[in-house]
Amino acid sequence: MVDYRELTNQLVAKMKQEDDLRNTAYDRSWELNAALIRVEMAHEEVLSSPDKKELISILEKEEESLDKVFRETALSPDMYNNIVHNPSGNDEITAIHERAPRRGNIDYKMESYARYKSVRYYLNENNGLLSPKAPCFSGKRSILTDEEYLGGACIGLCHDLSKIAVSRASNAMSDPTAVKFVHFARDTVSNILQELLEFDWRNSPLRRKYDSTKYALKQLETVLYELSVAGALGGHNLKSEDGPKQKRIKVDAENNSNEKEEGKDTDTGTSALNTFRQDITEIKERMDHRDKLRETLIKSSRDAQKAAKNSIFAMHRGNTKSAVQLLLDCENCVRNDLLPIVKEEPTLRGGSFSNVLEEYVEGKLFYCWLHGNGEDESGDSNNKPAGKILSFDDITLPITVDEYIGGLCDLTGEIGRFAVARGTVRDKESVKVCLETSKNIYMAIRMAGKLPGNINKKMNPLKNSIEKMERILYEQSLMEMAGRKFASSMEEGGFDAED
Predict the structure, then answer these.
(1) CA distance 52 to 28
(2) Tens digits of per-residue pLDDT, 173-192?
(3) Of 29, 237, 344, 443, which is least surrounded by CB within 10 A?
């Protein structure tokens, strides 16, 4: 029979290991956030102070510290939920899959880092766009993922340029380069938005960020319009001599040399834009490939999940051989069809794939609870259940502790249905085993402490299933005392612990 104390110890050990790693990642996230804030404050001090020499030295040190802490984070194995290991890796760094998801909210800080670096590069390098292959993003492994680059160095840059343009436009009367900057910012955001239009974002976090980019472009266009109207009404010429080439009028031959220099700048800008477009095209090709993998995984997951569900139905019917074969079909589908996709793209580990594993765990646990180790495949599920619960380590497929607990909660629903079936044939001993098992599972999960969010919603149905089984035992006791038979309320009301 299930010992809830032993089960609790197993769950607590697994959950503590995950919590420790997650908390370590959140602590590092605070360090990254503090480093970003220190650099931004150093920039503000440089801009506002007349004595910049000493402050610039401080700023350089802060930026070196920033690059160091982000690079260390990118190379630290503890910062990744390394679900799938790279079999070719011979050390800790290469053993981490290049697409392994980050723990905690490290990915958001990496995106903020990309945003900061892209803005500084744009302001310092004559309106340049920072490539994902830039030295600050390169190393033993790429510091940024494609999604982090797009969210930070592209979409985030657009929003920051919009804010900076408003600030520069406020000083358009005294700053002859302000209008030129707003023009270039508008053109840059427009070019980025044009490239992002080619992506199929689906319903993802990047989709929501992308939708906001058009508002950054709209604000820049509004600022340009308002500057032109304000300048005309006030009699000010805000089109400085440093304005964009296409907006200037050739007045005399004296400007020819300046036009040649601007032509060189234009060629350089065109080359940089072409490089950016090539980088975006490469990212799009990789993301399109991942979308195809995702669609394939979703379709294959349906077959595996259906097999796991049907195996449970077969066990309720007493068809043990069919149940064993269906569980084997599910396991083979996971190993042969789904795992290769997840190994190539570990970010697909959640969702459909996780649902399949949770359903498989439920079926495997139910089979073992009915038949023990399952040595007798011809057994009849109408016999007294073995009452054994497989431990986390007994599951051969690569599951997470969340999937195991989810399958364990769903198991009580199947046990409840089995209890109803045994109650109808007056098998009181089997109903007692069902009730004791469900109570022990309930106590073990409650004593495990903090539970994942998706598990909490399963606790009330689990509690309700225990109450229904207690009602079955009560009715059977009444029948024994009365010495006659009457219909059980459970037969009329049904049983469902997985609402």
Answers:
(1) 31
(2) 888 888 999 999 999 999 99
(3) 237
